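Readers outside the structure-tokenisation community will struggle with the description of the input data as it stands. What matters is that the chain and its backbone geometry are given together, residue for residue. For illustration, here is how one protein appears when written out as sequence plus structure tokens:

…
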Amino acid sequence: MRAWFPDDAACLDYLEWLRWPDGFICPQCKAPGRWRMADGRFWCETCHRRVSVTTGTIFHRTRTPLTVWFEAAWHVTSGKNGVSAKTLHRILGLGSYQTAWAMLHRFRSAMVRLAGTTSPERLRSTKPSWVVPGPASEGVVPPVRRSWL
């Protein structure tokens, strides 16, 4: 992973290529004109807005280096059963468990949005597919079938 993205600049270049494959377009005014600032952000010539490649993404306003985020993404998506925050904390050598938990929370929220559900609250409020609609099924959980008994 570090061979592909050795530093934050390489991560930002990759994110820029993903976000704007045909060149920068301001998310506010949809104009293509821009200047690159010294800190890596873009300055829109039309609306004079400063825009970062990470604006509106799970990487927005994070203090954790993007190389760590990319490595975490690798571990989250490559594991057969996923990864826990404790394991992510240990593997990445993060300073706190809370950082690993927050990263994992952002990844999972993004995956829920990609799956077609707009928010985790909406996901929790929908009924599972095995619940038959109707007043008789409110709160009814089907029995667990145990074939080994």
Summary: The beta strands are 34-36, 42-44, 50-51. The chain has five helices and three strands. Helices lie at 8-19, 66-78, 85-92, 97-114, 120-125. Residues 97-114 form the longest helix (18 residues).
